[in-house]
Amino acid sequence: MRLFAGLVALATFVLQLASAQQKPIVWSADEKPLADQIHGLRGLADDVRAGTTKELALKIRKLPAAENKLRLAVNLAELSTEGDFGHDALQEVATTLADALRERPLPWAEPAKSDAGGKATATRVPAEPYIELASLVRYEHVEATLNDEQYRAAMAQLEADDRKREHPEFALKDLSGKTWTFAELRGKVVLVNFWATWCPPCRKEMPDLEALYERFGAQGLVVLGISDEETAKVEPFIRERKVLFPVLLDPGRKVNEMFVVEGIPKSFVYDREGKLVAQSIDMRTQKQFLEMLGKAGLK
Questions:
Q1: Do 79 and 1 touch, CB atoms closer than 8 A?
Q2: Between the chain's N and C termini, which has fewer beta carbons within 10 Å?
Q3: Can you give the pLDDT at residue 23?
């Protein structure tokens, strides 16, 4: 899921699958058509893309166990949550990724570290594909069977990340210089959206966020768009698209780090008591955003 998600972790995974000489990927005759279809998914209409995603998952699953099979499964998973392509498609994607990891387990992204006396000083970090699978299960409500220590560690990592997001306290300035403090928004429904000008899925969902802001603003909805880019990039982009909801700047990425945001877009909805009630790990459609806001009492 998310071409732009977890760039550092994804880079680690790519290095794990590449040879020491970083040889180019060589696709087999069966793999190449699937790789091309995955590459072209964003060019498809959403209804076509949903069916194609499911078909690709089933075709990948039939391939012989190999590193390219896992590579294809991961690439498909990264794109499968950019919108609403149906639970059935996501389930097939998750099943295929779990099968590929079962057939070809990966080493840990970062091994456990210990001091001179052999005492552990840092926990091991699971490889990105295990986090991808855990994210599908935890946030997209699909099922996966994988008896693997890294998968369990990935699930635990996501649970810990969610705890960090439960009670955020931050203050950021918007493009006009006004400071927005999360604590002062108690009594409002707050949708926090992390995005960037260079991110196609972010740009695609922005009109829906604007429409929801206009629709529910009178009922107490506050949409906060947070970008880690500079004003010189963000301001003309927002002005050109006539975005009215507040856009906050986080150039030092302190708030991104507070929310454990490593890939975008990501959205979090807080109810009027400041409780985290819904979140998304990727681009959402207006229908999906409405479902999230419904959990905060907006209908």
A1: yes
A2: C
A3: 77
Q: What pairing do the DSSP bridges indicate for beta strands 171-173 and 221-227?
A: unpaired
- Identify the DSSP state of 73: H
Paired with 191 in beta bridges are 223, 269
How buried is residue 37: exposed, middle or buried, by Cβ count under 10 Å (0-12/13-18/19+)? Answer: middle
Q: Both tokens of residue 142?
A: 């699909």
Q: What is the pLDDT of residues 265-275, one digit of tens each?
A: 999 999 999 99
Is the separation of the CB atoms in 125 and 108 below 8 Å?
Answer: yes
CB-CB contact of 258 with 179 (8 Å) = no
For residues 84 and 66, what is the distance between their CA atoms, to the nearest angstrom? 30
Global pTM value:
0.87
Asked if residue 263 lies in contact with residue 2, where contact means CB atoms within 8 angstroms, the answer is yes
Nearest to 180 by CA among 266, 245, 269: 245
Structural contact between residues 210 and 243, judged by C-beta atoms closer than 8 angstroms: yes
For 159-187, write each residue's pLDDT tens digit: 999 999 999 999 999 999 999 999 999 99
- What amino acid occupies position 239? R
CB distance 283 to 199 below 8 Å: no
Residue 9 in contact with residue 128, Cβ under 8 Å? yes
